[in-house]
Description:
Radius of gyration of chain A: 19 Å
Number of strands of chain B: 4
Order of helices and strands of chain A: EEEHEEHEHHHEHEHEEHHH
Keywords (chain B): Membrane, Transmembrane, Transmembrane helix, Transport
CATH superfamily of the largest domain in chain B: MetI-like
Distance between the termini of chain A: 36 Å
Helix content of chain B: over 70%
Strand content of chain A: 15-25%
Helix content of chain A: 25-40%
Number of helices of chain B: 24
CATH architecture of the largest domain in chain A: 3-Layer(aba) Sandwich
Strand content of chain B: under 5%
CATH class of the largest domain in chain A: Alpha Beta
CATH class of the largest domain in chain B: Mainly Alpha
Number of helices of chain A: 10
Shape of chain A: globular
CATH architecture of the largest domain in chain B: Orthogonal Bundle
Mean pLDDT of chain A: 90
Low-confidence stretches of chain A: none
Protein name (chain B): ABC transporter permease subunit
Strand order of the largest sheet of chain B: 1-2
Oligomer: heterodimer
Family (chain B): Belongs to the binding-protein-dependent transport system permease family.
Number of domains of chain A: 3
Domain ABC transmembrane type-1 (chain B): 60-262, 341-531
Radius of gyration of chain B: 24 Å
Strand order of the largest sheet of chain A: 6-7-8-3-9-10
Number of domains of chain B: 2
CATH topology of the largest domain in chain A: Rossmann fold
Largest interface: A-B, 29 and 21 residues
Largest sheet of chain A: 6 strands, mixed
Order of helices and strands of chain B: HEEHHHHHHHHHHHHEEHHHHHHHHHHH
Transmembrane segments (chain B): 12-32, 64-85, 97-119, 139-160, 181-207, 244-265, 290-314, 345-366, 378-401, 407-428, 472-493, 513-535
Largest sheet of chain B: 2 strands, antiparallel
Amino acid sequence: MLELKNIQKSFDGTPVLKDISIQVNDGEIISILGPSGCGKTTLLNLILGIIKADSGQILYDGEDLTEVSMEKRGFNIVFQDYALFPNLNVYKNITYGLKNRPDISSKEEVEELIDLLGLREHLNKNIEQLSGGQKQRVALARTMVMKPRILLLDEPLSALDGVIKESIKDRIRTIAREYNLTTIIVTHDPEEALTLSDRVLIIEGGMISQYARPESIIHTPKNDFVRKFILNQLEIKRNNIYALFGDQLTVPAAQAV
Amino acid sequence: MDTRKNIELKIIFWTIAAVFSLFLALPLLVLLGRSFVGDQGVTLEFYRSVIADRKFLPALGNSFLVAAAAALAATVIAFVLAYMIHYTNAPLWLKQAVRAAAMLPMFLPTITYGFAIIYSFGKQGLITRLLGTQLFDLYGFMGLMTGYVIYTVPVAFLLIHNTMGYIDKKTLVVSKVMGDGTFSTFWIAVVRPLLGTLAGAFIQAFFLSFTDFGIPASVGGSYDVVAAILYNKMIGGIPDFSRGAVVAVIMLIPSIGSICILRILERFNIRYNRISDIDLKKDPARDISWGTAGSVLSILILSIFAVIFVVPMVEEWPYKTGFSLDHIRNAFLDHELLDSYSHSITMAACTALFGTLLAYGAALITARSTLPDRYKRAIDSISLVTNAIPGMVLGVAYMFLFPGTPLQNTLTLMVLCNIVHYFSTPYLMMKNSLSKMNAGWETTAMLMGDSWLKTIIRVVTPNALSSLLEVFSYYFINAMVTISALVFIAGARTMVLTTKIKQLQYINKFNEVFVLSLLILITNLIAKALFSLLAKKLAEKKK
Lengths: 257, 543
């Protein structure tokens, strides 16, 4: 279990995170949702260990990781722009970490990941030849080879379009279930957050707005921010889709608020 | 948190700091000191007497005038060449030829241009003979200006050519559909976005001309410029080091001014995010007129260099013009010339190797490290200062500091001098390329268990190879052609080709001068071809 206790962080005197406390259960998929500038990426970086909290604690299974360096935490991240190494082909990217820790994944485990993520036919390709969705899967495989204790995903879907988005969502869920892997996703898209995760952490202005299961966010929004910015967006989307399919149940978005 | 990785970076930082303290800051301080300190302590006497010298102020005025005139001409020429390449449908081969002609002067030392001008436009010159009349009096303003223009066209061309590539060509279409006339379109879609660059090209050309030594050394004649006065004060018949120091300091002032203006101009540069190319509309009149202008200018540049090929390959220019390889054969039998060639190659290769390493290290600090800002600012300031110091001033400063030390007259000192003198551009090239790379690499690689050094070796360096190659090539070629600093620090046993040319001038051995110039040109062209081939191989390997 991952536990954040009273995390605070300021940059040049401006508070970015004010007193964040949450718990994440093993194998859970959590989305951190909020508008840009709300502090969600800072929170992700704090968990990963790139930056240090001003105060507060980060615990994993009771072990205090607050002062432990990024490399020793055993967490891992897939960046929004994937950070693949263009001088190496797909297979060499996936197995990059094995050069340093040959025993961390067996040959069979690597093969299994390659198949699970549908990368077998691309192994000898260069990074430039891949589509966005393929790059995302390579980055995911490269990270999974390291057997992270927690998988962090920074805006994993924002650079992808339509159908690919749905298929990557599926892969992320499969990976989390298959490996019982705690997964934390940063996103600005309510639809992504609410359809992909077990629980959603909504952040606004550096504070927790609501931290709950998707259904309780929909049915019992905790405050105006959640209603106006999260639900309203989904209502508009729903109405547009309904209108498109000629459904009679259209409710004007304004009334729903 | 990432204290471990910063140890390596700090070592790199302090190495760079040490090199530039010893070989840039210290010599300049000594130079400044020498200009103020006489036998009786601190004095302004040297400044007073230099300024009172009836030759000095006119020479300073000449320098400003001729450098500004040359810079203006070079900017206009460079603009025409670049415009023809970017904004017309002239045939590709012509564009490539014009580009090559515009860049050619970079591969030769400036002192060669001077002699090339003499042998082209002099009384017995190649072009004078072809035309049957001497076009202008070359020992003086016109000669200097012609030389400076040739010298600075490549730099101005590169700057303008580069920016033109980034200008959004769609604005041409927008301007037209908005009903603009030809000149309005030309202004709003071409000239306006280029203004910063054009001014930058002018200033850069001015700076280079103002501080160049090679051209006045050959065609200055009685038209005095500051560079010639500085040389004579230091190495002339009656050396006068204190007043030489004063001249060097005075030369520094406009140089620093130019660089400050350049910095300010940078802010006016328009940056477009995406390069969008459009098909230019069909307009044969435009293509023919600009194509002709570009061709004529290119041919003019090339014609001046023609003598470099002609003179050493005839029996006795200008009296016996039969073909002969005697001069070239004799040059290769002269072991002194061969020595200076091997010195040049050694010096250029070492400059390129160590210079590239230094620029790479510096760029790693500013573009890809979490070192505190003060380290990054220090590196940026070093680059700025090296950019503003003319080679001659650096050479004179070295003349004050290093005699009597084991470094005096050594190739090592010359290599260090070149590395410091040319540091700015390689550093900026490297920084630019490194900062474009994905910001997540180091973190990702570290999470995969890499140390900092391992990340650099496994990921960053392989992806930076093409830029490293470019930087290497820049250092190599510049080291091959530079003379302004080396003329003060090369010793009898460490003569390089350019300083040897200067020496040959004294004894009127012009055939050898051209043979050596050819040697430099050929070496640079081969080096350039080699680097291009390597770059191509790299690109192919990636595919």
